[in-house]
Amino acid sequence: MVMLSELPPDQERDVSSFLSPKDLEKMARREYQDPPLRKTKGPHPRWYIRIRKRVVTANGVKKKQVREYFGFCKEIGIREAQHLREKALTQINAQIYTISSHVPLKDFVLKYNATHLPTLGAGTQAKYRLHLTNHIVPAFGAKKLCEVTTEEMQIFLNAKAAEGLSWWTRNDLRNILSGLFTKAADWGYWKEPYNPAAKVDIGRKKPKRQKRLLDDSQALALLAALPAIIALIIRIADSMGLRISEILGLKWKHVDLERGIIQVRERQYRGDQDITKTEKSERDVPIGDLVQEMQDLYLKDGRPAGEVFVFHDEFGQPLDDRNLNQHFLRKAAKRLGFYFAGLGFHSFRRGFITGAQEDGNSSIIVQNMAGHSKIDTTLEYTIRNIAHQKVIVMGRQKRLKKLA
Question: Which of 141, 203, 244, 254 is deepest in the core (most CB within 10 A)?
Answer without folding.
Answer: 244
